[in-house]
Model the fold of this input.
Amino acid sequence: MDIGVQGLNTGDTAGPDETRRLAQLAESLGYRSWWASDHVVLPSPRVDPSPSEPDTVIVDPLAHLSYVAAVTSTLQLATGIVILPQRNPVVLAKQVASLDLLSGGRMTLGVGAGYVPQEMAAVGVSFNDRGKRTDEYLDAMDQLWHAPEPSFQGEFVSFSGVEAHPRPSNVRVVVGGHSASAIRRAVTRAQGWFGIGTPEDIRGHLAKFPSRPDGFRISVSAQVPLSASVIREYEDLGVDELVIYPPMFDGTVEEVLKRNSEFTG
Done:
């Protein structure tokens, strides 16, 4: 089982010294991946379903991962997740391809449709359109990355007669979310799925999946402390990678990383 780390581009661990120290520690302890989360703004005052208080520091995931790429050499880099409808897909395609180049092909783009209406409104995106935009933006980015002559005509983005280089060497796309639309999106437009939950939660979500394409990876944000038996439960469900969020467990981030490193070998 591969083990990763998520969410350390927020709060007290978001500064340059902490980021460098923790990323290098995770790499030295054998963690496979480092996932950065995304919220451009948060509602103030906090209201459901906002995940954090409005003054929570959240460093942009692509800026954060660029820094992590520069201070590590083997750690896989991932957005967990970028709220895709809030981004210009042509610009994001360039940013992700550039980060993939500079990191030596270590980039995974995790995306989701978003769930905070106030955040969508602040960036001028209709909350009701977020699913359609996510599908369309993924298709448009695929054209820019892989088509011999990129061209796309959609409701929200259109282009032709253009190219964008560098093109990524090995970017994987994974989709987060538990809805039927998110699962369809993961299977038809991506190479993996990013879920959240206990083994029982994930069992229920995976029951909604059709057959998975070859090479399709399941990554899960574990919501329970890791142990050999817990890892076996996830493995039996077909999970390829568990991603831990250290602040949800007892101890400092360093202690949590060291304690769980027994499962990274």
About this structure: The mean pLDDT is 97. The chain has one domain: 2-263. Residues 130-146 form the longest helix (17 residues). The first strand starts at residue 2 and ends at 6.
